[in-house]
Specification:
alpha+beta
Length: 126
């Protein structure tokens, strides 16, 4: 099984576990799509914004001497977007309905981010 298929399986498991998750994307640090479950929605544009948002979060953290950024959350009126650093090479974005159980999303998404990070690290070390 390919690394991308393993990542897709992890994304599917996350969405199956939390029905209020409406889509996921794994983006590279420079804003390219690794894989997604957005079903034709603007994956390339979202991947670029994920990388930009993470970069701004890292800049803020650096300015405040807060250390490495692991997560960024955006809570909006109709949707929430949660970003998780999966490795030096990738970011997991989880898009969910506004009424979602944020704690459950964090628990499952952190596990998924670790799984994806392991896949990206294994792939890049070959």
């Amino acid at each position: 099984m390919s690394s991308v298929q393993k990542i897709n399986d992890a994304l599917d498991a996350l969405e199956d576990a939390i029905p209020s998750v409406t889509g996921t994307i794994v983006a590279s640090g420079d804003g390219f799509v690794v894989t997604d479950t957005l079903n034709g929605k603007e994956a390339e544009e979202i991947a670029a914004m994920v990388a930009t948002t993470t970069s701004v979060s890292e800049r803020m953290s650096s300015t405040l001497s807060a250390g490495s950024v692991r997560e960024t959350s955006i809570r909006s009126e109709n949707r929430s977007i949660f970003l998780y650093r999966v490795s030096e090479k990738g970011i997991l974005a989880v898009i969910a309905k506004s009424e979602s159980n944020v704690g459950m999303i964090h628990i499952r998404a952190r596990e998924t981010a670790q799984t994806i990070g392991n896949q990206l690290t294994t792939t890049s070390s070959r």
